[in-house]
Design a protein that fits this description.
Number of helices: 11
Strand content: 5-15%
Shape: rod-shaped
CATH superfamily of one domain: Histidine kinase-like ATPase, C-terminal domain
Structural class: alpha+beta
Low-confidence stretches: 231-237
Largest sheet: 5 strands, mixed
Mean pLDDT: 80
Order of helices and strands: HHHHHHHHHEHEEHEE
Radius of gyration: 44 Å
Length: 363
């Protein structure tokens, strides 16, 4: 129902209540007070305290109930000032207890003043308590809406976080796996182009190498886009471990020696980090040091473990391949997850060395 219709109906009911209870010998002052109290109900939502004060003369002059109680209820739904509400109830009870005119009050009537005051005070507190209950219900409903909005926001943030982690993991896997294979194709195609005698074979090798280089360039852009909103890695299966390291070295196309070993107590995440470190290092050897030999050394002591990949100087001209150095960035991030460090620097002999070092933590 529209608010204006409710207020208009309340004013009409207050007028009827006043008309029934108004004394035959009502003075003009009583009529004015009654009219102000009834009309004031139309603006009770905007000026609740003023309306309560305007209905007090009605309570003093006659036995009306609707207008004063409606004013007290409206004030109780609009304010949180409980001392103010208690004061309004006391004033209303006092005005309702006094007899008008005051000169007509006899000594016998005064004996019932206290009882009438308590009754009137209870009557005045009833709409106040009900109004406070309605206000609390509205507050609770509003808080429930806010909680639901907050939960929706948290769910959206969680979904974005999961998506960002998956993008970061996808970018890392694309670089570690797909780029590894495509760069091997490019290197092999370049070698075939140089060694082939048949012009058709050389042209085919050149085409394969060009397509591989273009593919690597596109992969670099895709990895960059995926890493923009990426976070820490997520666990996706299947994932390589140390058991796959020998196969990685055998298929690298580089003369590589594998020495040493790691303690069996390291976690699967640590094994995967070692594998990715070796994979990235060998990929960089193929791309930037053609013809070089590599040495992969697994090592550990009482508190740390690690892997060191060292390559010699290149023996052939370097094939220009695109690179954005995301591989080393990803390796450093993997090392940080293990509370370890990753170093990559040239060797005094003209080669290059990549070393992962991390504390031993049992799986």
């Amino acid at each position: 129902m529209p608010v204006r219709a409710v207020d208009a109906g309340l004013v009409v009911l207050a007028v009827l209540d006043t008309w029934i209870n108004l004394y035959d010998e009502a003075t003009p002052i009583m009529w004015v007070g009654a009219a102000l109290g009834c009309v004031a109900l139309a603006v009770r939502r905007r000026f609740p305290l003023a309306v309560v004060l305007l209905t007090l003369p009605m309570t003093l002059f006659m036995d009306v109930a609707l207008a004063p109680l409606a004013a007290l209820y409206t004030l109780a739904t609009r304010t949180r000032n409980r001392p103010l509400l208690a004061g309004c109830a006391l004033v209303n009870a006092t005005a309702g207890t006094l007899a008008w005119p005051l000169s007509d009050t006899s000594s016998d009537d005064r004996t019932w003043t206290l009882i009438q005051f308590v009754y009137t005070l209870a009557t005045a507190f009833a709409p106040i308590l009900f109004g406070q209950l309605v206000q609390a219900r509205a507050d609770l409903a509003r808080q429930l809406v806010e909680v639901e909005v907050a939960r929706e926001h948290e769910r959206a943030l969680y979904a974005q976080t999961v998506l960002a982690r998956e993008r970061a993991q996808l970018a890392r896997e694309m670089h570690d796996v797909v780029s590894h294979q495509v760069s091997l194709i490019a290197v092999q195609a370049g070698a075939m182009q140089v060694a082939a005698k048949d012009p058709g074979a050389r042209e085919a090798a050149r085409t394969i190498r060009t397509l591989s280089v273009n593919t690597l360039d596109e992969l670099r852009h895709m990895v960059t886009l995926l890493r923009v909103s990426g976070g820490r890695e997520t666990e996706l299966t299947p994932q390589p471990t140390l058991a796959d390291l020998q196969q990685l070295i055998a298929g690298s196309g580089i003369e590589t020696t594998l020495t040493g070993g790691l303690p069996p107590v390291i976690s699967t995440t640590a094994q995967r980090t070692v594998y990715r470190t070796v994979q990235e290092a060998l990929t960089n050897v193929r791309k930037h040091a053609p013809g070089a030999r590599a040495d992969v050394r697994l090592w550990h002591d009482a508190r740390h473990f690690g892997v060191t990949v060292t390559n010699t100087v290149p023996t052939r001209p370097t094939v220009a391949l695109p690179s954005s150095r995301h591989g080393l960035i990803g390796l450093r991030e993997r090392a940080e997850l293990l509370d370890g460090t990753l170093t990559a620097e040239p060797t005094p002999q003209g080669g290059y060395e990549v070393e992962l070092r991390a504390p031993i933590r049992p799986a």
